[in-house]
Design brief:
Blueprint lengths: L1 E5 L4 H13 L3 E6 L19 E5 L5 H11 L3 E4 L6 H6 L2 H23 L3 H6 L1 E7 L24 H20 L3 E6 L1 E3 L8 H11 L3 E4 L5 E6 H14 L5 E4 L4 E3 H15 L11 E4 L14 H7 L7 H14 L1 H8 L13
Parallel strand pairs: 1-2, 1-4, 2-3, 4-5, 5-6, 6-10, 7-9, 8-12
Antiparallel strand pairs: 9-11
Helix pairs in contact: 1-8, 2-4, 4-6, 7-9, 7-11, 9-11
């Protein structure tokens, strides 16, 4: 297939691009606006591969999206481009509405116009795959069952509300216009090339440098953690086999509290690069909780696993060890970010 993928220089998008180039015969047209968190470095060997084309453009620019569809004639769309940092959405929600809502609308309209002009097998086979988050479902209490595809929407932050809106648009374009679209929702990802404003890269880098390790509240907030390479494999399996109108909840069944995550990073780093000053848990600092901080997210991935023939290959301990080692091995990349290579830099705390 020729896949039009948006946000392919971001954290999850670049993992999907790498997986497509390394593990499939598909080609990819990578549309990315190159915001502060985008990195061509994250494409690795895909950047020079003839099956990968990078187009620097904004998904909210409808005429440009229409031109890209006309020029590249994709067989499928994977829509990952999004603003995704909750703290940033609280401080400045406008860009989240523009990218996540208006951008999704523009891409849907460009896709609909293109798909309407297809004929025969090409029209039947076309897919619009929208990648979303479990945060659209709100928060779980301690005894609540994990989220599934049928969990009612209850977004709590500007970020999750903007993603919920985009999910609704995708389903509306499917039901109203017949666009062969489907949605995947996932939980927190971690792994390589993660911009250091999110919990795991921020804590890892701070711990390497001997800085304070900020944890919101008492650290009891729980997330279900999915290694990004496992997610990329699931997303590619979905675009190959996903059914129009479907929803697939993708997770790893690896829930951990924020404090447990920070402690795991400290233990792993203490093993891989001991600190003469002592165990790094000494650096943990509890900071004021953020507004509307959801307590727990967790996904029951049973339907996606069965429908897509996919399961996560990494448990949390294996994934976090690979991730910490990667940050130790790629100090030049994150040091450049620390020095302000990206405009608009803002380092947050917990995810």
């Amino acid at each position: 297939m020729r896949i039009l993928l948006t946000g392919g220089c971001g954290f999850i998008g670049s993992a999907v691009v790498r997986h497509l180039i390394r593990s499939t015969r598909h080609s990819v047209v990578n549309v990315d606006r190159m915001t502060y968190a985008a990195s061509e470095d994250a494409l690795e060997e895909a950047l020079g591969d003839p099956r990968h084309t990078l187009v620097k453009a904004d998904v909210a620019d409808l005429p440009t999206m229409q031109a890209i569809f006309s020029q590249h004639r994709p067989d499928a769309v994977m829509h990952l481009a999004a603003e995704s940092h909750v703290d940033r959405s609280i401080d400045g929600p406008a860009v989240f509405i523009q990218t996540n809502v208006v951008g999704t609308f523009s891409l849907l309209e460009a896709a609909r116009g293109y798909w309407s002009g297809l004929e025969g097998a090409a029209k039947t086979a076309f897919r619009f795959h929208h990648i979303s988050t479990d945060e659209v479902f709100g928060a779980l209490d301690v005894d609540d069952p994990p989220f599934t595809e049928t969990t009612p929407y209850d977004p709590r932050s500007p970020y999750s509300a903007s993603k919920a809106a985009s999910d609704h648009l995708v389903r509306a374009w499917h039901h109203t216009y017949g666009l062969p679209a489907f949605v995947t929702n996932t939980t927190n990802n971690y792994g390589f090339w993660h911009f250091p404003e999110k919990l795991i890269p921020l804590v890892t880098i701070n711990a390497i440098e001997g800085r304070d390790l900020p944890v919101y509240g008492d650290g009891s907030n729980v997330r279900d953690w999915l290694f990004v390479e496992d997610h990329a494999a699931a997303l590619v399996r979905a675009v190959e086999n996903g059914e129009p109108g479907e929803t697939y909840a993708i997770g790893a069944r690896q829930p951990r509290s924020n404090l447990q995550v920070v402690q795991a990073i400290c233990r792993t780093l203490d093993e891989l690069r001991p600190d003469p000053a002592g165990p790094r848990e000494r650096l943990i600092r509890y900071v004021s909780d953020r507004p509307g901080h959801d307590w727990r997210y967790e996904i029951d991935a049973s339907h996606a696993e069965q429908a897509l023939g996919w399961t996560a290959q990494h448990d949390f301990e294996t994934g976090i060890r690979r991730t910490v080692q990667w940050y130790l091995d790629h100090q030049d990349w994150w040091e450049a970010i620390r020095s302000g290579r990206y405009t608009g830099q803002r380092l947050g705390t917990a995810a």
